[in-house]
């Protein structure tokens, strides 16, 4: 296969991952009776169980010990585990608290924030088009802050936590699914202890008649819903050019935004439309520049 040409199966797997992420608000909405903290704790626990079981079946029981024998890598994955758990927690809370639109804004901003992180911390250089895209996104956030009246802290915290997570995973030399498994093992112990404390205190409801068996099943399956798109994504990025993945990733926040407005009935008036418009124009500039740069590299390789 020529460089820059996506594998068809990888392309559809990537689309599947982003569609699952985009439709997640519907799933968390089914669990709206469960406190957001408990949803996140169950999500961490069952994701850890699922991924660890899969890795053990595939690589044997030594997969975790091999990583722990490298203290620097283990510390990086512990930090990335905390960041992704915080990201999960804020996202689930935002969905069930009626902030789906603002949560989608965070994932629209994230690619541009990654560019800015690359400049500030990794000494990367931006093209003129990338500087324009970052400036447009900044204008959109500033507009939303001054005209809509509320600082978009949910969006910025979601983008910031996921952006820092991406930086750590960029330098953590480990395969994607194994890295996910190790991250979750670091989170598993605190999550189990916290959830046990809640259950023993009488504020939980797992395996009881408080929420019902259907809710218990949904909580368990939330772990699979966390792991499956990440595994899909890890499969796809090895077979699809990153420039294509960069464009496809906007499927997720676009679906979230549509759900927020059309299904959850959240406000999306002119002030929000203008702010989002600045960000979307910035994303269009960013995506177009990325695709054109990828095409130039392909032409140069074929010359």
TrEMBL record:
Localization: Cell membrane
Highest taxon of source: Bacteria
Membrane topology of this protein: Multi-pass membrane protein
Keywords on record: Cell membrane, Membrane, Transmembrane, Transmembrane helix, Transport
Transmembrane segments: 12-30, 36-57, 73-93, 105-122, 129-145, 151-168, 180-197, 217-237, 244-268, 274-294
EamA domain boundaries: 9-145, 155-286
Keyword Membrane included in the entry's annotation: yes
Pfam families hit by this protein: EamA
One GO cellular component, as annotated: plasma membrane
Family affiliation: Belongs to the EamA transporter family.
UniProt-recorded name of the protein: EamA family transporter RarD
Species this protein is from: Luteimonas wenzhouensis
Classification of source organism: Bacteria, Pseudomonadati, Pseudomonadota, Gammaproteobacteria, Lysobacterales
Gene coding for it: rarD
